[in-house]
Amino acid sequence: MTTVEEPARREGRIRDAARTKAEILKVATEEFARAGYTGARVDEIAARTRTTKRMIYYYFGGKEQLFTAVLERSYAVIRQAEGDLDVGHLDPVAAIRRLAELTFDHHEAHPDFIRLVSIENIHDAEHIAASETLSSLNSPAIDVIRRILEAGREQGLFTAEVDAVDLHAMISSFCFFRVSNRHTFGALFGRDLTADDRREHYRTMLGDMVIAYLTAERPAA
Amino acid sequence: MTTVEEPARREGRIRDAARTKAEILKVATEEFARAGYTGARVDEIAARTRTTKRMIYYYFGGKEQLFTAVLERSYAVIRQAEGDLDVGHLDPVAAIRRLAELTFDHHEAHPDFIRLVSIENIHDAEHIAASETLSSLNSPAIDVIRRILEAGREQGLFTAEVDAVDLHAMISSFCFFRVSNRHTFGALFGRDLTADDRREHYRTMLGDMVIAYLTAERPAA
DNA sequence: ACGCTAATGTACGAACTGGTTCGTTACTCA
DNA sequence: TGAGTAACGAACCAGTTCGTACATTAGCGT
After folding, report:
1. Strand D: which positions are within 7 A of a protein CB?
2. Average pLDDT over residues A5-23
3. Contacts of B49 (CB under 8 A, 6+ apart)
4. What digits encode the pLDDT tens for the residues B71-122?
5. Which protein residue lies nearest to nucleotide D18, measured between its Cα and the C1' atom?
6. Cβ contact B191:A165 at 8 Å
7. Per-residue pLDDT at A150 exceeds 70
8. Do residue A183 and residue B119 have CB atoms under 8 angstroms apart?
């Protein structure tokens, strides 16, 4: 049966550490996101790779370290996107809106990342805490927000007393929840927060919300 | 050894279905919240109860149904709180703020509930979908919000074009994220979103955000 | 008093799961 | 060119885990 195809198996390089490692990471990301940390099966990850379980332990050491590696790679992607963002030429209001939209779009485009973060929170972020890569360097988004906030206050546009980290939390909460809780929210309230024809609505809603908060008229303290 | 204590074991009723059932539910809630659905161990739940694993299967049928029962009970609690809320005597702005604070406080007070919902989302809300209790009747909060929104618009206070379900999503997202993602957020940005001395700050921030959004001046459409 | 059933406890097992052991092969570089 | 090493595969193992078969008893109704 399969003996006939054996020669065909030799397509591409048979030995390619980088490729094998990358493929394990990709499949592991899907499997962890699908079933949770405990629910994910090392055997299942191996089976969906063109290599074996042995290689997972060879390259990563174990399930725990594999999950950490998956997290590190996922966070690297969003940091890359945030780092690429250039809002220097925009006025503060437009800049905040642009940043909010970038966050919105990234959450929209990476539901697996959202699930991984949810899973990591269930486990009290112990993998992130143990990872030097993740716990040390912080998000570029914070610096961007900080600069925009300063400019907005100098120009008298922003009145809210809020710092960059808290504003980031506000923006993230909306984007994250919309994706992370879409299943329970949909089941309970009959509304799909991630429906295609509502995406623009929520994107606008987020921007309106943040700008309204930052620019609201406030009684003198 | 233990033979001496055997008579003492007879304190309280030995046969009490309601009590046994309730105790299983309570311990199961903790265990599922702690370790996730797959990570939770039926043996562990049984061990922390004053009964045995046999009873879990006797009363609930299995791990899956037990988890569903845990979810149903948890949602019943928040619906109770929402149903008890009376904002009829408040003006729309104060009423929204009051509702937001109730949501905020409930999330703050029930971190286990948040974890269970996160876990249920990892599993695509399949338990909620299968539960008639949960998928049928909807939250009282939506009705409350709807009435407040109507009043606020009639009085010309609210300008935002938003319906009750989306506003509920906005409020929930902030409250939920603050608790659900506190571990990853804390590890990555060095800020504890649930620190005691910041609670009032975030409570106010939520109210300000929602009111600012609802009352913002908007260019004529 | 007593029988009947709901309620409970014990022990066990089949299937699974993370991790390892042992052996093989492709590639490289002296 | 051939020896050394990185990369790889198959089979295996020990510890778990959900679920159940079987035995037992408390307590209610009559």
Report:
1. 6-11, 17-22, 26-27
2. 64
3. B20, B23, B24, B27, B55
4. 999 999 999 998 999 999 999 999 999 999 999 999 999 999 999 999 999 9
5. B42
6. yes
7. yes
8. no
Tokens describing residue A114: 């959202």
- For A91 and C10, how far is CA from C1' in angstroms? 73
Q: Give how far B144 is from chain A: nearest CA, Å.
A: 14
Residue A10 pLDDT = 34
Residue among A143, A135, A155, A158 nearest A85 (CA): A143
Spatial distance between the Cα atoms of A27 and A214, rounded to a whole number of angstroms? 42
**By C-alpha distance, which of A57, A79, A54, A78 is closest to A66?**
A57
pLDDT for B5 = 32
Q: Which residue has the tokens 């990342």?
A: A113
User: How large is the average pLDDT for residues A76-87?
Assistant: 92
3-state helix, strand, coil in chain B (%, to 5): 75, 0, 25
